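Fill in residues.
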């Protein structure tokens, strides 16, 4: 054997334990990553099946509030005063109808 081959063989022998440890670490890391990916995939499939079959319904949050008739009418009047053309409906009070008519007349006059 040439001196270069002998030196190479000695270097490989010297680093053999380190290389074996590195190889084993890479193998274990690959198993861990593959296991995590498999668990995530199985979890996703299970979740999808549960949603599709109705076994699990995700929580929905709704926010609601109750307003008195006076508060609703106040908001309605404010929208009418601001010129919102989407406000619909009649009010039952004659006084609010008069106010609505007056507000509409003021809006028309100012234009």
């Amino acid at each position: 054997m040439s001196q270069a081959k002998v030196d190479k063989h000695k270097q490989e022998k010297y680093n053999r334990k380190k290389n074996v440890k590195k190889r084993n670490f890479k193998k274990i890391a690959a198993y861990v990553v593959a296991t995590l990916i498999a668990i995530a995939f199985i979890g996703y499939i299970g979740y999808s099946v549960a949603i599709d079959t109705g076994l699990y319904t995700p929580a929905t949050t709704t926010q609601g509030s109750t307003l008195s008739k006076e508060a609703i009418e106040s908001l309605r009047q404010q929208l009418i005063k601001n010129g919102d053309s989407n406000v619909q409906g009649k009010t039952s009070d004659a006084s609010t109808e008069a106010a609505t008519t007056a507000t509409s007349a003021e809006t028309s006059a100012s234009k």
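The radius of gyration is 39 Å.
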